[in-house]
């Protein structure tokens, strides 16, 4: 095992170095990190993730606007670029390492009985550590946003912004009317397709679903993955939107700069400056026009509350002077997934047993940007489906199935189980008996959770991570829908397309669920309570809504209610989580917000 681990890291190092100095050199240029600041800027952006990177790019297009981007983490490195290695990124310094508080409804079998909640701490944010999957959700998501009192956020309104950011020139089998081709963000299919992917898509046909472009007119169906990649390497928000414009004189980017407070005049309610720490020195920099908060679903509400914008009772308990009584931190939503199912096959056709060990795959990746190393986190194909729990008449999925080109029994090095919070004793009992055998996974994902959680301050100390209560499965319907999703995944593997590989579900019971008969609804409900995990799609804690919505934190132009000169531009503004992966949505939010900000300050 020790020799295998050394072999793995040698491969990883060689791959990374070849990207750094070879044909990938054009996407790893370093950002100029400033250490001296002007006293004031037109715009100050807090957070260099998917939303903040877009806004920094678009606002600095105007040479008369001076923009400061503050990022708590550092610049990404070449180690983050290999798509297949995505699960390892959660073990690096690029992860904030948030963990949920212990809850009674989920993560009962996880390490320390707490859910892992990885979030990116780097220039590029979570797009540096995520699984690269690019889906926009359903048109019904955005039409519902508008019906909730958010004009300008219908599907027809937001589609141009999805297309504006996108460069899909290397995509295949897409509806060209729904994609962009000259944006900053590169979208590709993985440069490899295993027999499992073909079987998955054909099995979807047998269940009545079409092979669709999941980012076009209708999302219901099966498809190969579209991913944020450029020539087989990760295309993060930083690589897409910041590296190409790094020489703009009017854009200053400061890394390792943790904002501890937004300064708001208690009388005028105007946000006028940002207080942050860099190299153990405290700075206060003023904003002439606006402050844009893009710190993410956990850190944006944390900063608002530290600055006096939040629930009155909570802030008073912590001795924080109240600026605006607001439901900051509420409405937390997330997609839960079950990644523990392993389906064994009788041929060496999965990445679990042919991926990193095969020198031909390594050479193919190094020279051509093709092969299994381009599979984003191992995810090859997706299916958006309806379960019997779904009572909606329109084509609106409540479950996603994600085909994984490997399974947990191929996790030799511990990266995937660490990401999921699977204890080693569980791995040893369930997966070690079939360690390294050819296997793949299908992970059901809950698309429209009804449960709602909350983010709270741990203290008034800005260096303390917030308290996060995800409240997974508090609503019983979420659990029942996930059980139906599991049964759909198993049903797909019983098709003739999978059975030609003698596909069978690995049937060692998960610890804590032995009292239930394997495969029953009660067994799967137990497994979900113990081992379901976050998909990293947290949204909603600075909810967008009309002034009549007592739970709304920002309006439809993303302005914070009760505070002038302050907007939120990240996943936290979503009223409801979309039926898809959220990174693409945040790019869109950044594009739309940039236009709204530009319109306000045009000719001023």
TrEMBL record:
Record key words, sorted: FAD, Flavoprotein, Signal
Required cofactor(s): FAD
Positions of FAD binding: 126, 259
Keyword set includes DNA repair: no
Location of the Glucose-methanol-choline oxidoreductase N-terminal domain: 120-143, 296-310
Statement: the UniProt record of this protein carries the keyword Signal: yes
Entry-linked SUPFAM superfamilies: FAD-linked reductases, C-terminal domain (SSF54373), FAD/NAD(P)-binding domain (SSF51905)
PROSITE patterns (alphabetical): GMC_OXRED_1 (PS00623), GMC_OXRED_2 (PS00624)
Coiled coil ranges: none
Active site as annotated: 537, 581
Family per record: Belongs to the GMC oxidoreductase family.
Name of protein: Glucose-methanol-choline oxidoreductase N-terminal domain-containing protein
Organism: Cryptolaemus montrouzieri
């Amino acid at each position: 095992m020790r020799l295998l681990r050394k072999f793995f890291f040698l491969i990883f190092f060689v791959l990374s170095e070849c990207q750094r100095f070879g044909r990938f050199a054009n996407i790893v240029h370093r950002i100029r990190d400033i250490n001296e600041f002007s006293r004031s800027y037109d715009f100050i952006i807090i957070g260099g993730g998917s939303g903040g990177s877009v806004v920094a790019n678009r606002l600095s297009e105007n040479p008369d606007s001076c923009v400061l981007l503050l990022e708590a983490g550092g610049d990404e490195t070449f180690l983050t670029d290999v798509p297949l290695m995505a699960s390892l990124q959660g073990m690096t310094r690029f992860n904030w390492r948030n963990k949920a508080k212990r809850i009674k409804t989920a993560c009962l079998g996880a390490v320390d009985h707490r859910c892992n909640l990885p979030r990116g701490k780097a220039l590029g944010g979570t797009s540096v550590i995520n699984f690269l999957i690019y889906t926009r959700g359903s048109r019904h998501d955005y039409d519902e946003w508008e019906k909730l009192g958010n004009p300008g956020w219908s599907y027809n309104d937001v589609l141009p912004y999805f297309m504006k950011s996108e460069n899909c020139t290397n995509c295949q089998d897409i509806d060209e009317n729904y994609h962009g081709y000259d944006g900053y963000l590169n979208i590709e299919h993985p440069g490899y397709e295993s027999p499992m992917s073909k079987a998955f898509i054909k099995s979807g046909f047998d269940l009545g679903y079409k092979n669709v472009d999941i980012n076009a007119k209708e999302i219901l169906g099966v498809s190969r993955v579209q991913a944020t990649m450029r020539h087989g390497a990760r295309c993060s928000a930083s690589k897409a939107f910041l590296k190409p414009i790094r020489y703009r004189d009017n854009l200053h980017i400061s890394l390792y700069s943790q904002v501890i407070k937004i300064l708001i005049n208690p009388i005028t309610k105007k946000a006028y400056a940002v207080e942050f720490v860099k190299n153990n020195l405290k700075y206060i920099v003023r904003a002439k026009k606006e402050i844009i908060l893009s710190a993410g679903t956990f850190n944006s509400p944390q900063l608002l509350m530290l600055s006096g914008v939040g629930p009155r009772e909570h802030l008073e308990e912590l001795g924080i002077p109240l600026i605006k009584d607001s439901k900051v931190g509420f409405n937390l939503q997330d997609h839960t997934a079950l990644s523990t199912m392993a389906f064994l096959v009788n041929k060496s056709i999965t990445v679990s047993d042919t991926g990193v060990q095969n020198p031909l795959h390594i050479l193919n990746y190094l020279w051509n940007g093709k092969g299994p190393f381009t599979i984003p986190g191992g995810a090859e194909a997706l299916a958006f489906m309806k379960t019997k729990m779904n009572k909606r008449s329109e084509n609106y999925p409540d479950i996603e199935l994600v085909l994984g080109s490997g399974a947990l029994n191929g996790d030799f090095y511990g990266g995937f189980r660490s990401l999921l919070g699977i204890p080693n004793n569980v791995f040893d009992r369930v997966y070690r008996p079939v360690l390294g055998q050819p296997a793949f996974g299908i992970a059901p994902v809950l698309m429209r959770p009804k449960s709602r959680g909350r983010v709270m301050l741990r203290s008034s100390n800005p260096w303390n991570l917030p308290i996060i209560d995800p409240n997974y499965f508090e609503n019983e319907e979420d659990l029942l829908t996930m059980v139906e999703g599991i049964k759909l995944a198993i049903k797909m593997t019983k098709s003739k397309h999978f059975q030609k590989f003698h596909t069978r579900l690995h049937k060692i019971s998960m610890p804590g669920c032995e009292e239930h008969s394997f495969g029953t609804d009660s067994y799967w409900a137990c497994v979900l309570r113990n081992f379901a995990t976050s998909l990293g799609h947290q949204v909603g804690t600075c909810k967008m809504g009309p002034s009549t919505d007592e739970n709304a934190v920002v309006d439809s132009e993303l302005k914070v209610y009760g505070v002038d000169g302050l907007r939120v531009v990240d996943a936290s503004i979503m009223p409801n989580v979309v039926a898809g992966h959220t990174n693409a949505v945040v790019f869109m939010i950044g594009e739309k917000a940039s236009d709204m900000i530009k319109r306000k300050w045009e000719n001023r």
